Structures are given as C-alpha cells and as structure tokens.
Amino acid sequence: INLKIRNFIKNLLSLLDRGRIYSFINERGFDAIHLNAPVLYPLIRPDMPFTVHMRDVMLMEQAGAVRKILQAKGIIFIDPGTMEPFKGTELRNGIVLNNPFDMTMLEKGYDEKAILDEYGIDQDSIMFSCIGRIKESKGVKFIVESFLRNKNERSVLLVFGHGDPGSGYEQ
Questions:
Q1: Which of the residues 64, 82, 93, 119 could staple to 77 if both were Cys, CB 3.0 to 4.6 A apart?
Q2: What is the pLDDT of residue 50?
Q3: Which residues fall within 8 angstroms of residue 103, CB to CB, at 6 or more apart?
Q4: 82 DSSP 8-state letter
Q5: Are the CB atoms for 92 and 49 separated by under 8 Å?
C-alpha cells in the first residue's frame, strides 16, 4: 500500500472510537473477525477474535506492526513473501495460501516515478486505487461513481484487474 494511503488509514483509525468498536464486538459475541489488510493492525487486541489477511510485504522497520499482528488469533499469508517478517516467530494460527503472483518482488522496492510516468500521473496527485477482479459484486461501479463526485482535480483513480467478458467492465 502506498505510504500516503497507509498513513491516511492509520489516521482514520485513530479518529475512530475503538471502545465502541470493541463493545460492538463483545456484545455480539463474534467467533472471528477478518481484517482484510494489515494496515488495520492498530485494532488488534489479544482478547479479540481478529484474523489478519496479510496481502502486503511488511518491512522490518515496521516491527511494531509485526508485534501487534502477532497478537491476532490467526494470520492468513497470501504467499511466502508476506510471511518473511514473521520467520522465526511462533504463530498462534497461520496459513500460507498459494498465491499465483510473486509478492517477493515488492521487498526489493519499485520505481514510483517510472510507474507514475507510465500512466501519465503527476507526482503531486492524490491517488486512489482498486486492484482485483473487476465485477459488479465487487462494487467497482460504486467506487467509480463515488470517485466521479470527487471535486479535487488532483485526484486520480486507478483501477487494475480483469472483468468478466461481456460485463461492461473490460475497459
């Protein structure tokens, strides 16, 4: 996840009333709560039934995040690359999925300027992205329509993925 987006989400989480979130969870007695991205790690408490879906390669300078994620009841890694920072640690419940994409390339970094140039995006743009399978049930239409209501001319929406043939999402 882009550092700007990660910081935005972290700041958003700090504005939330975590006490209300934890009360909501306790009142309903959930057996499991799936956190779909590691950026939500600030919510994790060892007494809550959180499972984290590790989709991103975390770097060791994020050691505080790694320690917090280790408090989750379970961790789902999308490939061995996302598990790398956790090697040598005892996991409560961990599983590595067979991801068809090699995420280890992200550990080496990437040339952000080259990517921006490839898509004709200014360095000072505010970027939003939707990456994955593009189909109606994923809410892509909602994302695009919501973005189009955005009045900030520096904003850019990037949508990457494949749509079902004939769905109207191919372009």
A1: 82
A2: 92
A3: 56, 57, 78, 79, 81, 82
A4: H
A5: no
